[in-house]
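Exercise 7.
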Amino acid sequence: MISIGTAPEKIASGTIWLYSYSYYGLQMVQLATIQNGLARMPLDTENLKHELDPHPNTDGYVVVLQIGEHLWYRTPNISPNVFWNDLTGALNSLGQPTALRAGQTQLILPSLIKRHITLLYPDGRPAANANITVSIYLWDNNHCKAHMGLPLGTFRTDKRGTIEVRAPLVALYLDDISYYEKVGTSPSGVAYSNNIGLKLGPEEEIVLKEGWQLTDDDSLLEKFELRVQTAAGRPRSGVNIYGNWNTNTCGGSDRIGQTDSKGVARIDLDPSFTRLGLMIGGPYSAGDPRAKDNLRELTEDELRELFSKHKLTIRW
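Solution. The predicted structure, written as tokens, is:
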């Protein structure tokens, strides 16, 4: 028997899920449905394990209770060494269990908390009237730390930059939110990482101060001119400009421009590019393996000049 807050507040309907997680992904299987507060749990763990088919390198398990579309409870992460020996104990870790009679347990989930998340810009201004997508954190242990969670919905910040989310006191995640994070110094001054997504703690009141990218006005992108010439000073056309990028999820290198017939490339950059640098190469198309054999990385002095003057001439 499952209730929220007190025993009489039975859950009318819902679903109980089992997740296994590893570096290779999430796997899930339905454990039970809830009708009028009652869930009938399976006892055959071998059959359940066969149905879930967890990865051999599974890191752990999580039991999740879903009520409607945007209300979730989750257990703490449970070690593989423990989980299959105590499935009932795993479920009971969602709340406060009380044994009733043979084969029956009363499980009272903690009451939902009105949690407040406030978004401020680095200068203290509130990030007002912004749509923020929030989930209960579940898993991001993969190559690019891409998050998969339990969606609580999309909320709009008020004039103070605050949203109110009803959820248990567990870790949350702001999905798809973009922001610049200071990560040290660079030839342009402050070094930034251009990030996507942000994991939060279990606190009831959370205040975040970051360089949010919520509107076009928030972007640090600026226009730059890079001119490439031969050693004799003649323009080099068709030279590719590559930008190395890194975030809190993944990184890589993309072609971000190409010199025209006058040897000039006009590109958009933000200070995160100075952290890992820029390269010129070619003229080859992006992805052409020959490009790797003919690359020239911009020096720190060149990056400093480019970002201070917004233009740079390279003889190469």
